[in-house]
Amino acid sequence: MSRPSRAAPTRTYTRSRVLCRPLVQSKLRTIAALGTALDWPDAKKQAHLVRSWGIKQLLEIWNKAKGKERDAMLWGDEVEYLVVTYTKDDPKILLSLRQADILEALASDKALSKDGSCSPTTQPPPVFHPEFGRFMLEATPGKPWGIEFKELLEVEPNMKLRRIIAKDHMLPNEHPITLTTFPRLGSPGVFTDPYYPASGPKLRSQFVPDEIANPHIRFPTLAANIRSRRGRKVQVNVPVFRDEQTPWPWRDPTVNHDLHQWPEDDDVRNGAAPDNFIHMDAMAFGMGSCCLQITFQAKNLIEGRQMYDQLSPLGPIMLALTAATPIYKGFLADTDVRWNQIGNAVDDRTPEEMGEKPLVNDRWRIPKSRYASNSTYISEDPRLRPEYLDPDLVIDESIKQQLLDGGMDDRLATHFAHLFIRDPIVIFSEDLKELDLNKTDHFENIQSTNWQHMRFKPPPADNSIGWRVEFRPMEIQITDFENAAFAVFMVLVTRVILSYNLNFYIPIKRVDENMETAHARDAVLARKFYFRRNLFPTARTARSSASGSSTPTGAGAASRPPTPTGPVEDEYRLMTVNEIINGTAYAKATTPPTQDDDDNDEEDDFFPGLIPLVESYLDSVNVDVATRCELATYLDLIRKRASGELWTAAKWIRHFVAAHPAYKRDSVVGEEVTKDLVAAVVKVGECEGAGRQFRTLCGVEVPGLEGLLGGFSGMGGRKASSRKLSAQAGAESANIVLSIQSYPLSSLF
Amino acid sequence: MTKLILSTGNIVSGGPSIIRKPGAFRSNLELTNSLRSNFLAAQEDYAAELAHSNGAANGNGNGSANGADLDIETGGRPPASVWTAQKDGALYVPAIDGDDHGLQEEPAQYDITAKLFFLPGAPVSQRSQHAKEALEHVLRELRAPAVDLLIVSFPGMSFEGDCEWEADRINSAQGNDEDEIATWPAIQELHRAGFAKRLGLAEFGSEKLSRFLQRVQVRPAVNQINIKNCCNVPPPLAKLAKEQGIDLLVHSDCTDILPKGTLRELLGQGLGGAGLLADPETGAGGLQGDLAPQWVVKYTAVVRDRGVIENKGYFAGATLVDE
User: Fold this and answer.
1) Which chain B residue shows the shortest CA-CA distance from A73?
2) Cross-referenced SUPFAM superfamilies, in alphabetical order (chain B) (predicted)?
C-alpha cells in the first residue's frame, strides 16, 4: 500500500502555561526544595497519618469534582526511552547515566522554552521528564491531543520530533532507544557509563549500583524503603528460556552466593535464586523498563468509571500484543513481557502479608504486589454483575466507611479503600506539619504508588482537569510508527466502546489470569485469553432504547434493561488475540484449524473483533481520505501483529539473537550479540527519523526487520518534515520540566 | 397510492447490525439489518403493550389507524395496525412515538451529518419534495434545527475500477449531469433556509465535479468517495478538491442502498419479512400494490469534542401504487 505524501506543515513551537496544560498534570508539580525523606521505620510510624490525610484530600476533590460535566475528550501518550552509548567502533554498548545532564541541556536550551500562544492547531514543544532509571527519559506531547481525526495523525511526527530533540541534546555517541529493557542490565562487568560498582547501601543489589537510579532523594528512598518494609531485597525471578545447549537444571551463573557486605546478601543463600530462573534483586530491574501509556480524559465521572472498567479486560490482550521483553540480565527469558518483573521489583509486602508467616504484626494477607493487574471494577453500570467482582478483595473497612460517610458511593469507596491498604513508601517530614486540603499530595502518595494496569485519576485539587483514566499495560515499541499505531488504536477503541456502549465485562479474576497468560513466550499466538463472547446487549428488547434519546455515553447505560442473567461462565470463552482483535472470520482465515477447535459451535463462537468494530465506527464518522488511509495503516499493523503475519518485538529480538553467529544456543545473550542488537535498534531509529523506508534501507542491515514491520514504512511525507522541524527544534525547541516533581511516580512506568 | 416511511431508530447501540462484515465494503447490510430488527422490536413491543391493555380494559383501545384486522393471516405476527401508524397521509413503519427523541445535549454540541440517497427509479421531479421530507424526518428525530452537513448521493454513480485513475475515468460518464444539476437548487434551498449548514456530494470524480461546479450557485463543501483498499485519491480529483476547497471524505455506502426487491422482502410475508405486504400469490395478508423505494436518508450525530456517536439511523421513503 502506498501512502500519500504530504507537504511539510509549517509549525511553530510555542507554549502557554495556561492553555497548554498537559493532561498528565501531576508530573508537572514541582517541589521547591528537597525535603527530608523518612527512612522506613520512621515512615511506617507516619503511614496512618498520611492515609487519613490522603482520604480527607480525596473527599475534598470528590465533593469538588463529582459533578464535573462535559469535559472534552483529551488524551496524552507517554513514551519512555533508554539512553545508550553506541559508536560503530566501540565494542561496548552501555547505558548512559547522564539523565540529569541531558535534561539540563534540554532545559537550558532557552530558545526552546520561550512563551507564546497555544492555539488549538499548534503543538507546543514536547515535555521531557526524568524517570526512575538514571538511564531513562520520558517524553510527552506539549499539550494533550484532541479527538479530531487529523490530530491523530500528528502523534507519530510528534513522537519522532521528541526523539530528535532528545538526541540533539545528547552526546554524539548517546542514543534514545525504545527497547523496554537493556538486555545486559545487571550483567557482570561494565554496563553503565560511567561505571559504578554494585552493592551500594540503598539498593544492596549484587548486580546494579545505587547510581543506576535517579539520584533525587525520592527514588533511592523509594527503593530502600520497599526493601526495608519487605524485610529483604526484592526478588525478581524470571524463568530462563531453555535452548538446545542450555544446561539443565540451570543455575544463574551471575549470582554470587558468597557476598557478605549487607545482611540482605543472605537472601540468595536462603533460596532467593531458585534453579531455572534468572535472578534479579533490585527495583531497577523492573522500574527500569520502558512502556507506552495512554491517559484519557472522560466527559464526567460516570464515563470515566465506565472507561476504566471496559478497558480493564483489554489490558492483558494489549500486553501480549505489544510483547517486547525477552531478555533479562544477559539471558533469554521464557517470558515475553515486562509486567511481572516490575511487580516483583516493587513488591513491598512483608512475609506476613504474603502469607509466608502467620499474621501477627500486619493487618491482612495481600495477594498481589502494589504493581499488578486491576483488582476490582469501579462503575455503577447495571451490566456489572456482582459475580464479576472479587469476593476476597482486601479493603480497609474503616477507610471505606470514612469515604461512605463523606458521600462517596459504595463501589468507588471500595476501590480507594483497596488502594489504601498500602503504606506510603516515601514521606517527607516537611509535608506532615499540617493538612492542606488545597493539595492532593497525601492522596497521590498512595494513589500513585498503586501501579495497577489501569489508573483512575480524579481531577487535581484546583479541579482544572477532568476525570481521567490511564491505560498502562502496553510495552514500548521500537519505532514511533508502532507506538503511534498502538496509541491511536487505543484512542479509537475508547470511542467505539462509548459509541456502541460495548460490554467487555468478565470476572476480574479472569483478567488476572489473562495477565499471567500474557507473559508466556509468544502468548499473542500461542495462548488463549478469557474474553466476553457478546459485547452487545443480547436483544433489542425495548424500542425506547433503540430509538431516541438513549445515549451510549455513560448515563444512558442506566436506562438499559438488565441483561438476562445466565451463568456468568457462559458469557465468556477462551479466545486467541487474533480472534479478539480481528474477529473470528479473519482469525479463521489466517490460522490453520487445530484439533480442539473442531467441536466448537461456529455460530456460537462468532466474535466481531476490535478492528472491524473500529472500522464500523470510522465508517460512521466523517473522515477525510488521507486520514482514513493513515489510520488504516495503523490498523493494518495491529491486525498483522495479532494474526502473526508480523512479529512482536519480542519475537524479533529472539529471532535476532538466535540468528547471531555469537549466540551458542545456551540462552546467554553476550556482549557481542547485545551490541549488534542495540545497534540494529539504533539503526532502525535512524532510518525512521531520516524518513527512509525501513524495509528497503534498513532491511539489509537489520536481520528479520521484515518480520517485525513488513512493508510498513511509517508516516510517508511526514518524515522530511520532522527532519526540518528538528533543525528548528534544535534552535528553539523543547519545553522542559526539569524540576523534580513532587509525585513523579504518579504516571511513570 | 400509499406513502411509507420506514425508520430504524437509533442503531448505534443496536448490536450486530452495526458490525462490519469482513470484506463487505459498500454494503447496505447495515440498513437492511437494522430496519428488520427495528420492525421486529416494534412488533414485539406493541404486541406486548396491546396484550397488556387488552387484559386490563378488555378492548381494542389503541385507535388502530389503518383498520387492519387482528387476523390469523398475519402469520403469527401482530397485525400492522398495532405497530405501524397512519399519520399525515403516510404509513409509518414502525410507528414513531412522540416522546423519547432528540439528543442528550444541545444540538450545538454535535456534528450532525445527513446523507440523502436519491434512489434509481424514483422520479427526478419528486426529488425536491423528497429532500425536504427526508431532512424534516431527521431534524424531527434529532430535535435539531439543522444538520451540519447534508450529503447528496445520486443514483448510478460509483467510484470503482482499478484504483485511482480508472475510477475517475469511469465516473466521468456515470449518473446524469442534467438531472443532478436540476436537483441541486432544491438542496441549495435547504441550505439557504438554514436547515443544512454545509452541502456535499458523493461519488463525483474530477470531471463530473468540475462540470458540476461550473453550473451551481452554492458549491458543495464535501465530496464523499469510496476508496476501498486503495488509498490513492485520483490525482486530478485531489488537485481539483484542493483548489476548490472541497474536503474529500471517505464512505462505504452503496449508491443503490435500498433496491426494490430488498424492500419487498423486508416488508413481505417471507421469512424475516415484516408481514406488511399482501402475499403476492394469494393476495392475502396486507397491503397491495407496487412497492417502489424513493429515497433513503442516513443521519449521524457525533458529540463534537468527544468523538462519540450518540445517534445514528435511517429513514426511507417508499410508495405503494395500486396496480
Assistant:
1) B306
2) NAD(P)-linked oxidoreductase (SSF51430)
